[in-house]
Amino acid sequence: GRDTNVLEVSNLNVKYGQIHALRDVSLSVQPGRIVAVIGANGAGKSTLMMTLAGLLAPASGQVTYEGRPVPAKAYEVLARGICLVPERRRLYANLTVKENLLMGAFLRNDNDGIEADLEKMYALFPILRERLKQYAGTLSGGEQQMVAIARGLMSRPKLLLLDEPSLGLAPLLVENVFKTIREIKARGTTILLAEQNAFQALEMADDAFVLETGRVLLTGAGSDLIADPLVRKAYLGIK
Ligand code: ATP
């Protein structure tokens, strides 16, 4: 129903010139859930995330959030409580860790709340406190991913869009990132997660979508998709 869905995407089409990257994509995300979007390279996951964040304009289709159309400008989307943590992090390499975190809070003016949230980020990722004055560009890949997630959380999003948060991370750090995503959910944040790491994403997801060459191929509970023969063969490598 209208009130139960946070995010409602209907018949979304996105093109890059001749390339039709998303074809009639429809999906919905309910509040407080983790929703996974899985798919191979080039399936359209990043295109979907960037469109939802207001960074790409759709050719056609509708996106509504809490019953109202999502604005076309990235900062207006952020002001509505939707925050994208982009693929490959896109940190400000020449700013320090702390400066990057503060950039995440640039739409806020509650200085006490911002200070309190910085403390929460150091509790979530203790290594960041030790690296506050280090330039983000000199951090390891895993540390950069932590800064990117923490920077996103500093905007106090209601809906967090995570694009391949486990990309390029060692297995132990992948575990950490997935654990963190569960913690973010436990705080009441809704999460849409694009992942190539299909097994872990489906294991954690309440609901999931499989994107294949720009189309939604399958929809279901994460646990249902893990059991789906097609998903097992094509995405989990299990025969
Ligand atoms: P990956 O997991 O490899 O990041 P993805 O599922 O995120 O893939 P997208 O990056 O959304 O996929 O790409 C979807 C399709 O759109 C691909 O065929 C890609 O080549 C194409 N595409 C993406 N960005 C552009 C662009 N700026 N110009 C032209 N084509 C693009």
From TrEMBL:
Annotated InterPro entries: AAA+_ATPase (IPR003593), ABC_branched_ATPase_LivF/BraG (IPR030660), ABC_transporter-like_ATP-bd (IPR003439), ABC_transporter-like_CS (IPR017871), BCAA_Transport_ATP-bd_LivF (IPR052156), P-loop_NTPase (IPR027417)
Pfam families: ABC_tran
Domain ABC transporter: 7-238
UniProt KW keywords: Amino-acid transport, ATP-binding, Nucleotide-binding, Transport
PROSITE patterns membership: ABC_TRANSPORTER_1, ABC_TRANSPORTER_2
A GO molecular-function descriptor: ATP binding
Highest taxon of source: Bacteria
Similarity annotation: Belongs to the ABC transporter superfamily.
Official protein name in the record: ABC transporter ATP-binding protein
Organism: Anaeroselena agilis
